[in-house]
Amino acid sequence: xxxxxxxxxxxxxxxxxxxxxxxxxxxxxxxxxxxxxxxxxxxxxxxxxxxxxxxxxxxxxxxxxxxxxxxxxxxxxxxxxxxxxxxxxxxxxxxxxxxxxxxxxxxxxxxxxxxxx
Amino acid sequence: xxxxxxxxxxxxxxxxxxxxxxxxxxxxxxxxxxxxxxxxxxxxxxxxxxxxxxxxxxxxxxxxxxxxxxxxxxxxxxxxxxxxxxxxxxxxxxxxxxxxxxxxxxxxxxxxxxxxxxxxxxxxxxxxxxxxxxxxxxxxxxxxxxxxxxxxxxxxxxxxxxxxxxxxxxxxxxxxxxxxxxxxx
Amino acid sequence: xxxxxxxxxxxxxxxxxxxxxxxxxxxxxxxxxxxxxxxxxxxxxxxxxxxxxxxxxxxxxxxxxxxxxxxxxxxxxxxxxxxxxxxxxxxxxxxxxxxxxxxxxxxxxxxxxxxxxxxxxxxxxxxxxxxxxxxxxxxxxxxxxxxxxxxxxxxxxxxxxxxxxxxxxxxxxxxxxxxxxxxxxxxxxxxxxxxxxxxxxxxxxxxxxxxxxxxxxxxxxxxxxxxxxxxxxxxxxxxxxxxxxxxxxxxxxxxxxxxxxxxxxxxxxxxxxxxxxxxxxxxxxxxxxxxxxxxxxxxxxxxxxxxxxxxxxxxxxxxxxxxxxxxxxxxxxxxxxxxxxxxxxxxxxxxxxxxxxxxxxxxxxxxxxxxxxxxxxxxxxxxxxxxxxxxxxxxxxxxxxxxxxxxxxxxxxxxxxxxxxxxxxxxxxxxxxxxxxxxxxxxxxxxxxxxxxxxxxxxxxxxxxxxxxxxxxxxxxxxxxxxxxxxxxxxxxxxxxxxxxxxxxxxxxxxxxxxxxxxxxxxxxxxxxxxxxxxxxxxxxxxxxxxxxxxxxxxxxxxxxxxxxxxxxxxxxxxxxxxxxxxxxxxxxxxxxxxxxxxxxxxxxxxxxxxxxxxxxxxxxxxxxxxxxxxxxxxxxxxxxxxxxxxxxxxxxxxxxxxxxxxxxxxxxxxxxxxxxxxxxxxxxxxxxxxxxxxxxxxxxxxxxxxxxxxxxxxxxxxxxxxxxxxxxxxxxxxxxxxxxxxxxxxxxxxxxxxxxxxxxxxxxxxxxxxxxxxxxxxxxxxxxxxxxxxxxxxxxxxxxxxxxxxxxxxxxxxxxxxxxxxxxxxxxxxxxxxxxxxxxxxxxxxxxxxxxxxxxxxxxxxxxxxxxxxxxxxxxxxxxxxxxxxxxxxxxxxxxxxxxxxxxxxxxxxxxxxxxxxxxxxxxxxxxxxxxxxxxxxxxxxxxxxxxxxxxxxxxxxxxxxxxxxxxxxxxxxxxxxxxxxxxxxxxxxxx
Lengths: 117, 185, 993
Hints:
The complex is a heterotrimer.
Chain A: E1 3-6, E2 11-14, E3 19-23, H1 37-45, E4 53-59, E5 67-73, E6 79-84
Antiparallel strand pairs in A: 1-2, 3-4, 4-5, 5-6
Chain B: E1 24-27, E2 32-38, H1 40-50, E3 61-63, E4 69-74, E5 77-82, H2 88-93, E6 99-103, E7 108-114, H3 118-123, E8 140-145, E9 148-156, E10 159-165, H4 169-183
Antiparallel strand pairs in B: 1-7, 2-5, 2-6, 3-4, 4-5, 7-10, 8-9, 9-10
Chain C: H1 3-6, E1 23-28, E2 31-36, H2 41-47, E3 54-55, E4 62-63, E5 76-80, E6 86-91, E7 101-105, H3 119-122, H4 131-135, H5 142-154, E8 169-181, H6 185-195, E9 201-204, E10 221-222, E11 225-226, H7 227-239, E12 244-247, E13 250-256, E14 260-266, E15 281-293, E16 297-300, E17 312-314, H8 315-323, E18 333-337, H9 341-351, E19 359-361, H10 369-376, E20 381-383, E21 385-391, E22 398-403, E23 411-414, E24 417-421, E25 423-426, H11 429-433, E26 438-441, E27 446-449, E28 456-458, H12 468-478, E29 488-489, E30 514-516, E31 521-522, H13 523-531, H14 537-544, H15 557-568, H16 572-575, H17 589-593, H18 610-615, E32 620-623, E33 626-629, H19 639-652, E34 654-658, E35 663-668, H20 672-679, E36 692-698, E37 704-714, E38 717-722, H21 727-741, E39 748-751, E40 756-762, H22 766-770, E41 774-775, E42 788-794, E43 797-803, E44 811-817, H23 821-832, E45 837-839, H24 842-851, H25 892-895, E46 900-907, E47 919-921, E48 932-942, E49 947-955, E50 964-969, E51 972-979
Parallel strand pairs in C: 1-7, 8-9, 8-15, 9-12, 15-28, 17-24, 18-19, 18-24, 19-20, 34-45
Antiparallel strand pairs in C: 1-2, 3-4, 5-6, 5-7, 10-11, 10-29, 13-14, 14-15, 16-25, 21-22, 22-23, 26-27, 30-31, 32-33, 34-40, 35-38, 35-39, 36-37, 37-38, 40-44, 41-42, 42-43, 43-44, 46-49, 46-51, 47-48, 48-49, 50-51
């Protein structure tokens, strides 16, 4: 059972209190109705799932109830950092990433969106 | 015309069970409960109205002289617990700051776990660290007990109040009774 | 009768730590025996001269006791308290005896001394490694029906108990600064050092008493005390410290992420009459800031022909039996060793008066103080020699010895026991489980902890620290002990030895030199595996099953690895080590499940009105964790009669239904309507206060996720209902969007499912029935039309009264605070009974709604159905520019022709009721496999319609009205006509009744 630091409760809590909520920083377009088939398919279905560092969402569902983001190494299961929903993606170069490669960035990741401002 | 005052309350738990040696597990009495939601800028005003300082630190609580209590559950969420005849709902209805107050008096059931070994009894199903250092008197947190969600509130070194949803109360009560058998002295 | 006699003829007066007067009576295979309090079953059997305790897994060879600990591969027995409390595969070396203990040997028939299965031993040339895989391949069908059952009956270990376990099991989550695994010298020192700094410490050891190797060492002191006395005193001191928890009989079986370690504490297995409420075992789920692994080392056996004969055992085991239990494992004990440690055992036995005819040492020139001491005691030491075979069958009777390098005379030496040591294997199991990397210590041919992956440190023998003083120093420094210092004297570090086949075990194809006793794997099996192309140690393991039994190869892994490496011509580290996995020793299902049994297996959720339903004799339907009243049978009624009566009563008079399980969410805030606009397909901004609307919620992909009626209580307050099963996920879904996509909205969500008991009163007399009970609400059609909500009082308590319908009748859903639910139900029921008010359950509810074509999400939809498919296009706000699923609904496949649409089906024979899930075809005469164009989602007998009714998803269904389709069933094809989904009151006039 992992220990996960909740950025709202400001302490590590047992994994039993949390629920994983998929890849982080997927952006729902403001005018989603106008989105192209290709972009919408990517938003809906295409995920990175890399070996190594992942940006992912968690919810402290049996705790404070908040959604937040985390960077975790899927090889060691170690959390590098956690941050509140809506906060910008932390600078990976500033975070010590021992032995794990940075996640590859895709085109739609580089977009600046409201959730990152 | 039917009798308008005939509807009586039926508590889901009956305080008719043996507890585990030094640990007693008993249903708490009826209470008024409000799920209160508000942003930081409303906290001061709501605190004045409620007559207590709404806690803003994680895992903390505030209790007014008359027993009205506010448990921090999340950054914009508190559970207010008060006497059954409390006017707290009416008080909040007068608040002119942005907030949400929802009556959950009947949604939750309280269970009191007390006596030497009360902390171990809860640790039979709760993965949080309940040592006094990590979970001091006055600490409260939503968490897990066995297979259900509960709120654990430490009201004394050897006493806790557990709050859970009504239909899970039978499970919580049985679970704590079972665990108390293993943890009483 | 002297007590030494009564507790076994091999008990040596004055030896060991057990009290001769404290005798314990037990049975083994029905034989009445006596041991002493503190004996393990193994020590008590040996005291009584019994070595033969079981038969082996594959060849049914007689087996004895190899070890004195949890690494035991052979001495597996069945312990029975009663029929329900019987445990197979208990290691006799771990089980403590108690008065009345009943132990039985396993894997033999008809008896332990005469076992029919031992013919497998004679046929063993035909049973090589991989034999099962090669032999039983043809004919294919025979594997399941013939080969596997026969093999399983003949091989295998104990027999699983047939009855439910009546024991109790407990669980405890624990948190500490330091967890120390292992209570030997290293573990005790680390625990003491840390405890004295005030740290919160948990110390566990699998044995009944702390001490580890100090339990058998002789001539060793720590802090001036006899080492075992020091261990006892230190354990007692730790037990008295409030910051320390000392757990004996407790195995750390699994080491998981972030210093999460699973322990099993055996609480009552050693007690004659455990208290009724005493758990048998307690699972400890420990989270430690730091872990000290002081898990020691395990002695290896020598691999030579017939090394499995009862009476052949590890030297350290013989020493423990002597020095702790006061038991001599034989009267004429031979010794076979490749390192010094067996000498210490020989010396102790010799000093206790036991004849040691020979020490056979594979080393050419052993020279150390213990070797000299043995010689000085008059023991013959045959250096540079090997034992090439052992005689005797059910007990070793002799050993055959010859020089390693050939030449010289073969000697046959009579013995009644042989003790052996090939050296010591550091216990790196938990370290390896923690994802630490082991490193090869070439000088001493052993794997040691290398890079740590977690905050843990290995100390003492498991870290390759062999000297006692060094061990104590290492343990204290590992915990940064400030003041604590411990001084040791004596205690020898046992390094060296050998791995792999001993000289003389040879490449011979007939001898059985066992590597893995529990799985009957011999040296030649490992060589065969390599010859057959298994070049990875993981493949060798699986081909031979070496190390795969319940002992997980604690004694065999290194030997197997060395033999494979030799056969491959590679150095050991190049061949690699198999992965260590949890559990370290077998863990009972009981302790894993612990209290999640019976009523605590899963929460059973009951509504506030449950007791009333139960009193009426209603059977309950499981809906998720909820129990819902299914129907209310009256005297003489079967299920169908009861349901038909309930359905008719609702339409003719009125029915009362417990809808409390419906999910409810209160949505509060100035942006509440705006939020609902985004979460539902429907428009909400213009919904008037006091009005309700049926809402559909989609996922982003455009498919229906949930539905329910939403009432507006105030400009900024909505009462949302969800399906019973959907309540938690809908709340999660709404919170997700609110927190992460629409955080700018001023709105909050609160689950109120359990705040309200919900009593549905439906039917033409509904208003008449509730009116006398309601205060402060005008119930007239004009004031409170269909789809409206009011707040007021009923039976003197607050209510949220909904005028709504899931039956097609005029009706109400009375929400009252949960604790009042039963009283209000009873009052409504009493008021309505004279008017024909009838309680109805979930089955009638399902039929009534199907008669009206109302869908149930999850029954008529399956996660691939859009509102258009379900005939609910009217519920989509036409002018909306955004809601969850709006883009999904525009996807090409979702607007393409040929989608399945919800339709009604009428069977040509009105009495035929279709099966839900049945497939539909257009032409029943087409060849199999037919093209299926849909399936039945709901199907019932409708008493109100006087015929069967069904809903179905059918390709282009709405274009097929009036078409005849076919439902092929095993006993014939059923003809159906495609219709609309509404079977009763098509115009919906009754709603406004």
